[in-house]
Amino acid sequence: MNNGLENVVAAETVLSDVRGAEGQLIIRGHPLSALAGHWTFEQTAHLLFTGFFADLTDAAGLAAGLGMARVEVFERVRERIGAVAELPLYDAMRALTAMLPDGTALSDALRLLAAPAVLLPALIRLQAGDTAIAPAADAGHAADVIRMLGRSDGAAALDAYLVTVSDHGLNASTFAARVVASTQAGLTSSVLAGLGALKGPLHGGAPGPVIDMLDAIAAEGDSRGWIDRALDGGDRLMGFGHRVYRTRDPRADALKAALLSFGPVDARLRFAEDVERAALEGLRRRKPDRVIDTNVEFYTALLLEAVGFPKHGFTGVFAMGRVAGWLAHAREQALTGRLIRPASLYVEPPASRAA
Ligand code: COA
What we know:
This protein has helices at 32-35, 41-49, 59-77, 81-84, 89-97, 106-127, 141-148, 155-164, 172-181, 187-198, 207-220, 223-232, 250-260, 266-286, 296-307, 314-336, 351-354; strands at residues 16-19, 24-27, 30-31. It is mainly alpha-helical. A 3-stranded antiparallel beta sheet has the order 1-2-3. Helix 7 (141-148) crosses helix 8, helix 12 packs parallel to helix 14 and helix 13 (250-260) packs parallel to helix 15 (296-307). It is globular. The protein binds coenzyme A.
């Protein structure tokens, strides 16, 4: 029995490979460094979808279909969005996603790919007392998200983020999506499973606390002192360490590059770099035998903050990128035709309790 299924190979995939020892992420044959900042989210989704939908054409065709899907999702939910706007942001997004048709065609996949991008900005604005902004079918996907958020800068940085998190091996939410797809349920069911798994703080819920940590350090004004105290007190520094990567998380560098090309965050970025240096020094001093390096969440937090998302929306933006991977994995799993159905180890109740 293996409680966390570590090292259990549960699927064969052409989609991505997480090379923990080398600090490499390969997405369908391409190292992440060749994709983030170079490819658009639409091109990356096309790369992931290839071979899984009979009527998929080229990346431009996917981009056009995705633009129309954003408009369709907005129209479908506009009457209902007020009814769920009182829910916590992520739960409201999940509730509206559940209202989409549950098929397995490319049109279903495009609606689901569009859904977080449309729903999250609309809900953020409604919850802040503003009106939702309708999507523009002919805009780039990331640019349209920025526009729907009511902002004008940061589309390239958001695009690089969405590409960076689009797929990452058999992580918990992707596995959940594949289990559901293996029953031959529709893609909405798989995406809802992915959304449920991503919500937890051990998976997609971590970047918000990075902002809390940075704010606490900024208020005190002494990175080294704050970090030494935290480590001496046995706290974990948010945005450092990883279960699989035994070196720097390659996604941290992809996101840092995206941030560096995004001017307005300069002072905040310099401060974060100082915190990062102090954290790495502190961790190396205390754990010389273990590589604890910067992970994806550190620069995710800075990037999403810079492009204008509130920190309670960070997990929803993660879903906006990862939904591409969920959809591709769901189709890949369904096409194997094999139901995922592991065994459990039954533990006999003690005789006294059974009696
Ligand atoms: N800050 C301080 N100490 C850390 C640390 C961190 N961020 N990450 C690991 N450590 C320490 C642990 O306290 C542990 O020390 P111990 O052996 O004295 O108990 C040691 O390093 C090994 O930790 P372990 O829990 O085995 O590492 P892991 O590889 O299983 O954990 C994480 C990975 C991500 C859970 C862990 O690094 C962590 O909690 N990071 C902070 C939260 C975070 O950024 N999450 C987002 C991940 S993408």
